[in-house]
Write a structure and sequence with these properties.
The complex is a heterodimer of chains A (107) and B (119).
Chain A lengths: L3 E4 L2 E4 L5 E7 L7 E6 L6 E5 L3 E2 L7 E6 L2 E6 L9 E8 L2 E4 L3 E5 L1
Parallel strand pairs in A: 2-11
Antiparallel strand pairs in A: 1-3, 3-8, 4-5, 4-9, 5-6, 7-8, 9-10, 9-11
Chain B lengths: L2 E5 L3 E2 L5 E8 L9 E7 L5 E8 L3 E4 L7 E6 L4 E6 L8 E8 L7 E2 L3 E5 L2
Parallel strand pairs in B: 2-11
Antiparallel strand pairs in B: 1-3, 3-8, 4-5, 4-9, 5-6, 7-8, 9-10, 9-11
Chain lengths: 107, 119
């Protein structure tokens, strides 16, 4: 099983700042790497799939990059609605696993 | 627009079987084009994929839960279901049903339902 480790656990930033979230895999991951946003009391929302493709309706300020074992979600300029928890997720051998999450909070 | 809605008992006793149903509107379960998934989230914790059913019959499960989990579909009722046997307090979680065109990620989620395992 591939383990995904996200860092930092918490990111304290102000609106307008750039957020950089990291996801590291225990072994090389194919291109099946996705990112989700979750707000309290809500289901997760798909942001990015296949490492760098934005899902339908996702603003351009969200971007994904990386390869192998290291992946990054970047929010270019934080909007008030972006403060939430973010999860990375991968699929290999018919098993989907998620990282532990990064909470982006208002500084 | 596809909508997914979980339903089932909110409280289950230890050692019993947890049963949930996901009602689907706006899409056909029997079309064979989608992966119909179940996932869960323990209170205050991260996400765990349970498994999915594809093409109305092929199933894939998380190995950590495989011995206790069954996912099935009833296309005539536009529903798919989850059963988790021999539950313990560790199975207390918000359970989500979801859908995707590919097995690699999950674009569409239900709102989730909290199931508590307690006597």
């Amino acid at each position: 099983e591939i383990v995904l480790t996200q860092s930092p656990a918490t990111l304290s930033l102000s609106p307008g700042e750039r957020a950089t979230l990291s996801c590291r895999a225990s072994q090389s991951v194919s291109s099946y790497l996705a990112w989700y946003q979750q707000k309290p009391g809500q289901a997760p929302r798909l942001l990015i799939y296949d490492v760098s493709n934005r899902a339908t309706g996702i603003p351009a300020r969200f971007s994904g990059s990386g390869s192998g074992t290291d992946f990054t979600l970047t929010i270019s300029s934080l909007e008030p609605e972006d403060f939430a928890v973010y999860y990375c997720q991968q699929r290999s051998n018919w098993l989907l696993t998620f990282g532990g999450g990064t909470k982006v909070e208002i500084k | 627009q596809v909508q997914l809605q979980e339903s089932g008992p909110r409280l289950v006793k230890p050692s019993q079987t947890l049963s949930l149903t996901c009602s689907v509107s706006g899409a056909s379960i029997s079309s064979g084009a989608y992966y119909w998934s179940w996932l869960r989230q323990h209170p205050g914790k991260g996400l765990e994929w349970i498994g999915y059913i594809y093409n109305s019959g092929s199933t894939y499960y998380n190995p950590s839960l495989k011995s206790r989990v069954t996912i099935s579909a009833d296309a005539s009722k536009r529903q798919f279901s989850l059963k988790v046997s021999s539950v313990t307090a560790a199975d207390t979680a918000v359970y989500y049903c979801a859908r995707g065109r590919r097995p690699d990620y999950v674009p569409y989620w239900g709102q989730g339902t909290l199931v508590t395992v307690s006597s």
